[in-house]
Amino acid sequence: MNSLFAKLRQSEIALALGIIGILIILFVPLPPMMLDFFFALNITMSVVILFTVLLINKSLEFSVFPLVLLVTTMYRLALNVASTRLILSEGHNGSAAAGKVIETFGDFVMGGEFIIGIILFIILVIVNFMVVTKGSGRIAEVSARFTLDSLPGKQMAIDADLNAGMITEEGARERRKELEDETGFFGAMDGASKFVRGDAIAGLIITGINAVVGVGIGMVSHDMSGAQVADTYLLMTVGDGLVAQIPALIISISSGILIAKSSDDKAVGNAIFQQVGTNYQTFYMVAGVLVLIGSIPNMPGLMFWSLAAACGYYAYYLQQKKVKDAEVEQAAESEAKAEEVAQAATKEEDSLSEALAIDTLKIELGYGLLKLVEASKGGRLMEQIKSMRRQLAREVGFVVPNIRIRENMQFEPGGYAISIKDIQAASSNLNADKLLAMDPTGTSLPIAGEDTIEPTFGLPAKWINESQREEASFNGYTVVDCSTVITTHMTEIIKDNMPELLTRNEVEKLIEDLKPMHEKLIEELIPAKITVGTFQRILQNLLEERVSIKDLPTILEALSDAVIKTQDVIELTDIIRSRLARQICHGFINHEGVVPVISLSAAWETEFMAASDGINVAMEPSKVQGFLKAAKDRVENAMAQGLNPVILCSASTRRMVRTVTSRAMPQISVLSQNEIHSKVNIKTISQI
Fold first, then answer.
1. First vs last Cα of the chain: how many Å apart?
2. How far, in whole angstroms, is CA 536 from its chain's centroid?
3. Fewer CB under 10 Å: which end of the chain, C or N?
4. Which ranges in 111-234 belong to alpha helices (H)?
5. What gap in Å lies between CA 435 and CA 482, rounded to an integer?
């Protein structure tokens, strides 16, 4: 039995059975006892609805109210039909023919005078129809209209909060769902208010039919006198009307309260008390008015003076409470001020400590560039830096430190500087109101604009207006805004200083993150065979030549095999580079599917071998300059053809060649034959 009730509660079977029950009441005659039960159930439901409305905090917590209103209205009308059937068919048998509930309501209200009952019934109908129902219907209509009118603005506000990061995607979905529910609720309430109005009219008509037809049936069909008809048909008619109209009035009041509720998250009683019952001046004035009214001759003064005393006492209580609250608040403020003084002294010490702190990465902006970080003014620098850090993490294999952006009023309006560990690494000046156009090939631009030099790669560029963007892009020039210029510059500075940014803590974090999948490999290698410091130096060597360390498992496996043969960091690095040949070559494959290389001639191979002791290069300065000039000419010719070449040499000379080229051409990679993967095709474009 309990499981059956549980299923009824958890499904819509109960609602379906209720609707079917209403239809049965409409068409099937009911015995008086069952009608009494249904009338009692009607009163119970109306009281439940009233207290539910009073105790909820938001209207949307009772969003099914329009459906409940429809069902209860149909239920009352079905009871009216059933009671009318009993009154007209069995009324001649006495006032209890339609049940004890109707008889009791009629007898109690009328008190032996059916005229009194009729007048009271009409008053209830007027109050319900003309006052409560009409007012709540108007509120529902206006609320529905205002809700629909404000819908676009609220949706835009949700989108704005989402874009600003103030709410999550899940929060945005919840707010949109709440907005949709609110719109549907007030729209449904606008229509549901018509149910209440129609119910009041139907009740009035049904009561009139019961009275007129009942009197006719009693006097014509059953030869009853006027007094007998009044004691039976009219008593039951008034009782039937009252027993239907009282629940209807309760539900109408519930409807009005629900629609009139404000949007704050408070129950009706709490909201009324906080807004009405907390001002002591109001109750002092009310007490004075009541004293004056009680002083009018022949007025029951004791009653008014008693109420005046109660209001005065309550006003005095509120006043004293306000004084105590003010004292508590003042004491709290004094305590807070004392705490602030203590914190100020602590802050002074902290500020000295902060002055000693070092920002790993920092961008300083002149006041003319501050709008680049203000999203409200269209600034995109913050978002671009976030994207840049994510991209770098994917490329190199670890997360670079946070980048602090600060203003520097000593700079020129368009000036900016990039610092690493508080040491300035680069600086330049920008025009915040213009766009930077440049030719990727490094040639000058034949378009109107202010000549300048692109700060990252030193290419000739021009400052152009927004109106020239389309023309410049059409001619094949790269056009970027100031945020992109700074972000690109910052990216290259970070790439050039990756080894310095890979700290011991970051290496330990990389190892810890890798442990769940490669715990045995790490335990065998670190610190059993090499220390964390040695591993850090190896990773830094790779990063120095812009080799990604994201494939840590392969690096660790190569180390595990190599440490048996050598403990030299440089030799270990070369072995790992050979193991990462596929990854290294992949970054240089061009659109033709080949790696363009500039090979080293046998003569230069011999020169480097003869001038090297394995680590340092002891070559004559004139020969070094000659090599660099030849290498630079070959590289520039390749770049003019749109190629990004690498210098290819033997494994024994790679380190020396890299040492020589790193200062003059740090962005040019030097690969050995061992670092060319067997599946990768190379194309020799020139020779040094």
1. 95
2. 40
3. N
4. 114-126, 134-163, 169-216, 226-229
5. 7
Token digits of residue 353:
């400590």
DSSP string, 239-259: HHHHHHHHHHHHHHHHHHHHH
Report the predicted TM-score, pTM, of the whole model to 2 decimal places. 0.50
Q: Does residue 286 lie in a domain region?
A: no
Q: Which domain holds residue 524?
A: 502-579
Residue 33 CA: distances (Å) to CA of 29, 573, 630: 12, 97, 113
Quick one: 452 and 508 in the same domain? Answer: no
506 pLDDT higher than 80 = yes
Q: Do both 87 and 211 map to the same domain?
A: yes
* Domain at 528, CATH number: 1.10.8.540
Closest of 475, 477, 429, 471 to residue 453, by C-alpha: 429
> Has residue 349 been placed in a domain?
no
Cα gap 288→107, rounded to integer Å: 43
Q: Do residues 574 and 615 lie in contact, with contact meaning Cβ atoms separated by under 8 Å?
A: no
**Most distant CA pair in the chain: distance in Å?**
142
Q: Is the dihedral of CA 130, 132, 133, 137 positive or negative?
A: positive
Residue where one domain finishes, among candidates 472, 499, 526: 499
pLDDT digits (tens, 9 = 90+) for 575-599: 989 888 888 888 888 888 888 898 8
DSSP, collapsed to helix, strand or coil, labels residue 8 as helix
How many distinct structural domains can be found in the chain? 4
Q: 685 near 598, Cβ under 8 Å?
A: yes
Kindly state whether residue 34 falls inside one of the protein's structural domains: yes
Q: Does 575 lie in the same domain as 612?
A: no
Residue pair 642/663 in contact (Cβ under 8 Å)? The answer is: no
Burial label for 572, CB within 10 Å (0-12, 13-18, 19+), is buried
Which of 556, 579, 602 is the endpoint of a domain? Answer: 579
- pLDDT, one tens digit per residue, over 405-425 is 888 888 888 899 999 888 888
The verdict on 236 and 186 lying in the same domain is: yes
